[in-house]
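Why do we care about 3D structure at all? Because function follows from shape, and shape follows, mostly, from sequence. That is the central idea of this module. The next example makes it concrete: a single protein chain, its amino acid sequence, and then its structure expressed as tokens.
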Amino acid sequence: MASVFTHIINGDIPGRFVWKDGQAVAFLTIEPVTPGHLLVVPRKEIDHWEQIDTATFTHLSDVAQKVGRAVKEAFDAPRMGLLIAGLEVPHVHLHVFPALAMETFDLSNAAKDVAPETLDEHAAKIRRSLVDLGYRENVPD
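And the structure:
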């Protein structure tokens, strides 16, 4: 059965994409630990991060750095967090978010009822930042 992320990637479920390329996508999570929290996800379904081939893992890390720089700039974050949890959805994903304190790394502290308009605004800020950083070719309209 396809994962929820595959359904988002395929457009069956809406997603607020900020990055798309042939191997990976990045989109905002609907339950952010801080504003700007997004997920970097490979297009191919891989359950556990240690099962991923080195080239794909390297690409995901590269995308995470690029979108992380954009989020840091867009939200004036002091630091960026990166987390691979792997328990919520059986499809590898990297959490990238403004890290304000160690509590930020606890996904159980995620907001549950963020207004869709707020998430849309956050996605637009990150897309603008990615374009400003020179990544226009990977920023979806």
